[in-house]
Specification:
The complex is a heterodimer.
Chain A (H helix, E strand, L loop, with lengths): L11 E5 L5 H10 L3 E5 L2 H4 L4 E4 L4 H10 L3 H9 L4 E4 L1 H6 E5 L11 E6 L10 E7 L4 E7 L4 E5 L4 E7 L6 E8 L2 E4 L10 H8 L2
Parallel strand pairs in A: 1-2, 1-3, 3-4, 4-12, 5-6
Antiparallel strand pairs in A: 6-9, 7-8, 10-11, 11-12
Chain B lengths: L9 E2 L2 H11 L3 E5 L2 H10 L3 E4 L4 H7 L8 H10 L4 E6 L3 H10 L3 E5 L20 E5 L2 H9 L4 E4 L9 H18 L6 H8 L3 H10 L5 E3 L7 H9 L5 E3 L1 H4 L4 H13 L4 H7 L27
Parallel strand pairs in B: 2-3, 2-9, 3-4, 4-5, 5-6, 6-7, 7-8
Classes of the chains: A alpha/beta, B alpha/beta.
Chain lengths: 204, 301
Amino acid sequence: MSAQTNQTEGPIVGVLALQGDVREHAAVLAELGATVLPVRRATELAQVQALVIPGGESTTMDKLLRAFDLRDAVIAAIDGGLPVLGSCAGMVLLARDIEGGIEGQQTLGGIPMTVRRNAFGRQVDSSEVALTWAPDGSPMHATFIRAPWVEAYDADVEVLATVVGTSDNDTHAVAVRYGKRIATAFHPEISGDHRVHQLLLDLI
Amino acid sequence: MSQPDAKSPQVGTDLVKRGMAEMLKGGVIMDVVTAEQAKIAEDAGAVAVMALERVPADIRAQGGVSRSSDPDMIESIMKAVSIPVMAKARIGHFVEAQILESLGVDYIDESEVLTPADYTHHIDKWNFTVPFVCGATNLGEALRRISEGAAMIRSKGEAGTGDVSNATTHMRTLRSQILHLTSMPKDELYVAAKELQAPLQLVQEVAATGKLPVVTFTAGGIATPADAAMMMQLGAEGVFVGSGIFKSGNPEQRAKAIVKATTFFDDASVVADVSRGLGEAMVGINVDEVPEPHRLAERGW
């Protein structure tokens, strides 16, 4: 997906393009006026003012981040204050700790939380849910696909949305913010609601 | 497209089924016949595995009727890995599909690699919560499968041969037929739909957007990192590798190489790098040497 060239004033936002629904994130960001840059190399990362880690397979992205020497650069950028948004697999990658990962799976960290991979179950349990978006208190339509949820988080992590798990009837955080780092268990990039991406752009 | 207002979660919607395929984009889905192979695939960076009893090369060599796999075998693979697990049902065999759904597989491939169970009808895929991927050799076939509820399309290629030429033909055909629709005057789309033998509404959608409404992968005969990268350059959004990995000399290294080549499909230096020292590729069969009645790509209607 090419960036909108007529919007030269927009911030340059990268989408980690190793695997996953890169195009959907790029389309939303372009609609919001950003110049979108797919990021597969450290040289591309160095050009962006914010980064999106898309939905996809977290184990695959972890392996590719390491195989192409991108992992350390992304960690350094996040530590250096680069605004970042991760959805689904992106949430897994931004977690300090994971449950239900594969042997040797690493995350980038960035948010002091523990995330449970595939928390809702298998694909037949994937669903669309109406939840409340805490930043403005209004409803948000969310799409969960083999999604994680937040199992535990430090006191200074802000919870932006929760759902009640159908398997355990407990309330779980599914969208969080920690400084300039946002993570959602659902996919704002495919549901037509741009509030999550706007929140990222507002952090630049 | 459903727009549930209720608080209760809505499963099996179009968005959830097609969205699942969106998350696989840029990735490699690998055929595996044992839990050990599934682990190797997961460790190599596969985005999903396809659980089946025999890879297409063996189905082709051994002949006979090929059916959906033993539930025990599929469950052993589901237990072994945490990435999505797909499994195959015969074309038209809706009960095999019901069984796979009850097992909890993440995607069903209604596949020409197995012996068809119905030479007229495909499965009515709207009846299922689990999403389906189907093969297609051209745009009309792809749109017919989507109209039956397929949430993902793949080229057919000629499975089990290691010969990529048919997959190339299918990807090129899809691309040029889509491009042709986008250049047509609106009042000619009615006849285009008739000629494609596809629903008008879908034909109009493709003409307007310039792409299929679902994710399109490639499959059939992919055996090398270069094969995968070429399919991606021809417009595939991801790659299925069947016999190509575990029928090769060094499956682990080849699997990793194909994953990397799929991500960096447009960077020849990366594809060259990962292609070094991979050992023997699968031996392969030229599609031309497969007698026509045994060509799998011609199954499906």
